[in-house]
Amino acid sequence: MIRNLIILCISVLLFASCKSKKTIASKKDYSGYMKEGLVTGEVETINTEINFWQQKLAADTGSYVYMLELASNYFRLFRTNGNIAALQKGDRFLKLSSAKLNHTEPEILYSLSKNDISQHQFLQASSFCDAAEKAKGDKYTISLLHFDANMEL
Q1: Angle between helical axes of 84-100 and 106-118 (0-180°, round to 10)
Q2: Contact between residue 93 and residue 68 where contact means Cβ atoms under 8 Å apart
Q3: 125: Cβ–Cβ under 8 A, 6 or more apart, which residues?
Q4: How many C-alpha atoms does 55 have within 13 Å on its Cβ side?
Q5: For residue range 27-60, what is the model confidence (pLDDT) as tens digits?
């Protein structure tokens, strides 16, 4: 009997506390970040860059530099609008450019490792760290990337 009374009192208190509408943040605090079209201009600029580099790559399909530029712009697009397809396309171009150089450029391998970490592909990220180590990359950067990749395994 007493137990039921205690449960009833706690339930009433919980429901009574839910009725109060306390404002946590004012609309003016975040309205600047919620404006329509805030990102649209940046996305259009990035898409223009992507189109430019795609045309350059179509003219010279073997240029790893154009592939790196495309990868960079696709990563910018992903950071801007969160479109995962842009991250995957950027990763694909980065892998193609690294393959053109026989996986000997440590900076590209760092980027591949970082992107695989962001896609939760930790084993592959660790293998890119190993490749960067073989390519005589910066030991400190490699140790940081190894830590990030291996922490999740």
Answers
A1: 150
A2: yes
A3: 112, 113, 114, 116, 117, 145, 148, 149
A4: 5
A5: 777 777 766 677 888 999 999 999 999 999 999 9
